[in-house]
Write a structure and sequence with these properties.
Helix content: 25-40%
Number of domains: 1
Structural class: alpha/beta
Shape: globular
Number of helices: 9
CATH class: Alpha Beta
Bound molecules: fructose -6-phosphate
CATH topology: Rossmann fold
CATH architecture: 3-Layer(aba) Sandwich
Largest sheet: 7 strands, parallel
Radius of gyration: 17 Å
Length: about 260
């Protein structure tokens, strides 16, 4: 696991954008796993500005709210269209976002998994972390082997996401999310976290025991993880000086 601490969210995002841009240039038909929420907003803005070629890329989003029409302004369909897809030349047929309106959730989820396998798996999975330690919407005590399925949000996550709905009561209780096992199958995971309110969950995920109580901690078991964070999110990492030192002394060939 490589932990890259930068002074600001913008600086940490730039490192992440260079990583993604490098992959897209090297592998134009790459498969990307994408996240929503406030964390990747800057990343998508930077990628748009780079004017990369998205024509052959395939994307799979982590999650979507159950029962929310794709046209709803707080749906992750709307989020992705607004913040990324309408600004790049991606082929619509290559975009995959869980269907929160599906009438048969288990069947849809099995098909989502099958589609990921059919394109050869995810090359790079973008992740944010919830204040409860979730990745995707895999809330605490999610099975570390879970696949795409329905989950019930915790009260804390509903509170955290109320900002996207205007009021807490409007936040759906259920979501479809890629599982932890699904995320762990990605060849490379890129975790972003910004701000003081992520510091505790991040420290538990990166330096605590691997536990379903902090689902992001499973990433310690993944062979290739890059973590890009700002100073505030890194503030509770006990080895933060070491991570900075390691990044500053990276061999030239390893630089992002
Ligand atoms: C979003 C997702 C979530 C978020 C997490 C952080 O697709 O899967 O895990 O990454 O809840 O959300 P923000 O970025 O809004 O703090």
């Amino acid at each position: 696991m490589e932990i890259i601490i930068q002074p600001t969210p913008a600086a940490a995002t730039s490192v992440a954008a260079r990583l993604l841009a490098g992959l897209i240039r090297k592998k134009p038909a790459a498969v990307l796993g994408l996240a929503t929420g406030s964390t990747p907003l800057l990343l998508y803005r930077e990628l748009i500005a780079l004017q990369l070629n998205w024509r052959k890329l395939t994307t799979f989003n982590l999650d979507e709210y159950v029962g929310l029409d794709p046209a709803h302004p707080a749906s992750y369909h709307s989020f992705m269209e607004e913040n990324l897809f309408r600004h790049v030349n991606i082929a619509k047929k290559n975009v995959h976002i869980p269907d929160g309106m599906t009438r048969d959730v288990p069947k849809f989820c099995a098909r989502y998994e099958k589609k990921i396998r059919a394109v050869g798996g995810v090359d790079l999975q973008v992740l944010g972390i919830g204040t409860v330690g979730h990745i995707g919407f895999n809330e605490p005590t999610s099975s570390l082997a879970s696949r795409t399925r329905i989950k019930t949000l915790t009260a804390q996550t509903r509170r955290d996401n109320a900002k996207f709905f205007g009021q807490e009561e409007a936040v759906p209780y259920h979501v479809i999310t890629m599982g932890i096992g699904t995320i762990m199958d990605a060849r490379h995971c890129l975790l972003l976290a910004f701000g003081k309110k992520k510091a505790r969950a991040l420290a538990a995920a990166l330096e605590g025991p691997i536990s379903a109580m902090n689902p992001a901690s499973v990433l310690q078991w993944h062979p290739k993880v890059t973590v890009c964070v700002d100073e505030e999110a890194a503030s509770e990492l006990s080895l933060r000086d070491y991570y900075r030192w390691a990044y500053d002394h990276k061999p030239g060939w390893q630089k992002i």
